[in-house]
């Protein structure tokens, strides 16, 4: 299955100069674990729950003064929307990632993919299979 069929298209974005406290609030309100970091139309990185724990909490930084730019993951790894889900899963496993930016062929952000998104077709298949079991 292609990533464009699985990804979340409507993505919350955050500016690099936003405080991590505000970023965490956005993540909580949107029930998400990662935010793409953008300046204008340029994708600059990603801020994840892991970044907040490892680079803010564990280092004792002040979330009201620390900016997203200071703690985001700038080495952005992305997949293209027409790639197959198996390839995205391989990348996520190799890089130890739970969230992946999805771009089009021009490099423009078009969505986000999570491990949960990749698992959704498997869950649906399991539910369908259990619904058609015949009694013994």
Strand content: 15-25%
Our count of domains comes out at 1
Helix percentage = 25-40%
The helix-and-strand class reads alpha+beta
Contiguous uncertain segments of 5+ residues: 126-130
User: Which word captures the global form?
Assistant: globular
Overall pLDDT metric: 89
Largest pleated sheet: 3 strands, mixed
Number of strands: 5
Q: Which series of helices and strands comes N to C?
A: HEEHHEHEEH
> Distance between termini?
34 Å
Superfamily at the CATH H level? CBS-domain
CATH class type = Alpha Beta
Rg over CA atoms:
17 Å
Structural notes for this entry:
The chain has 136 residues and is an alpha+beta fold. It has one domain: CBS-domain (Roll), CATH 3.10.580. It is built from five helices and five strands; from the N terminus they run H-E-E-H-H-E-H-E-E-H. The strands form two sheets. Strands 3-4-5 form a three-stranded mixed beta sheet. The chain has a two-stranded antiparallel ribbon with strand order 1-2. Mean pLDDT is 89; it is low at 126-130.
Short description:
Helices cover 38% and strands 20% of the residues.
Quick tags:
three-stranded mixed β-sheet; globular; CBS-domain; alpha+beta; 136 residues; two-stranded antiparallel sheet; 20% strand
Topology diagram in text:
Blueprint: H1 20-30, E1 34-39, E2 42-48, H2 49-57, H3 68-71, E3 78-80, H4 85-95, E4 99-103, E5 109-114, H5 115-131
Parallel strand pairs: 3-4
Antiparallel strand pairs: 1-2, 4-5
